[in-house]
Backbone:
């Protein structure tokens, strides 16, 4: 479920199983009826829905791919291949998408919203007992990303951190939270 940045449209998954197999629906806040943006296919349904800052696109995951579809409908466009189960994505106003999966060898990834080869932004630090990096949220202006550092052993040791995209430095903001 996501609310478009302008607050005028609600996008959600309808039916299907909890992980994959759901149709992607959009409903204007001032209307009762929804319309379908993306239907189930052999690649699975939509998961991990998020919106572009300009309200024109909806991003989502299918099995093995990150895609986008116009808020007005049409064919879905594949942006890149992904491995693992999605753990969040966020679309920055600099035309890039930061996303995460449960692949513990990598943390956060970045890809152009026009598509291309994704690049790794963070890698969990095993020495610090980091299990994964998840649930990114690109900050306004696109300079930083908030994200959760998932502990390798205990969930109550999760941390909220911010990654400075200009310097690559990261700082912990909250210990024991996500």
Residues:
């Amino acid at each position: 479920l996501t609310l478009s940045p302008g607050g005028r449209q609600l996008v959600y998954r309808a039916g299907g199983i909890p992980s994959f197999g759901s149709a992607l629906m959009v409903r204007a806040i001032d209307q009762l009826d929804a319309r379908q943006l993306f239907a189930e296919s052999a690649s699975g349904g939509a998961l991990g829905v998020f919106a572009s800052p300009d309200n024109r696109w909806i991003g989502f995951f299918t099995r093995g791919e990150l895609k986008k579809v116009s808020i007005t409908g049409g064919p879905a466009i594949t942006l890149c291949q992904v491995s693992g189960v999605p753990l969040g994505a966020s679309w920055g106003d600099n035309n890039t998408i930061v996303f995460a999966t449960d692949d513990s060898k990598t943390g956060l990834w970045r890809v152009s919203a026009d598509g291309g080869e994704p690049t790794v932004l963070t890698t969990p630090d095993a020495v610090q007992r980091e299990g994964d990096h998840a649930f990114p949220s690109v900050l306004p202006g696109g300079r930083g990303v908030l994200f959760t550092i998932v502990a390798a052993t205990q969930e109550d040791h999760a941390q909220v951190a911010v990654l400075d995209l200009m310097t690559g430095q990261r700082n912990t903001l909250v210990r024991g939270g996500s």
Q: What stands out?
A: The chain has a mean pLDDT of 86. The chain is about 0% helix and 50% strand.
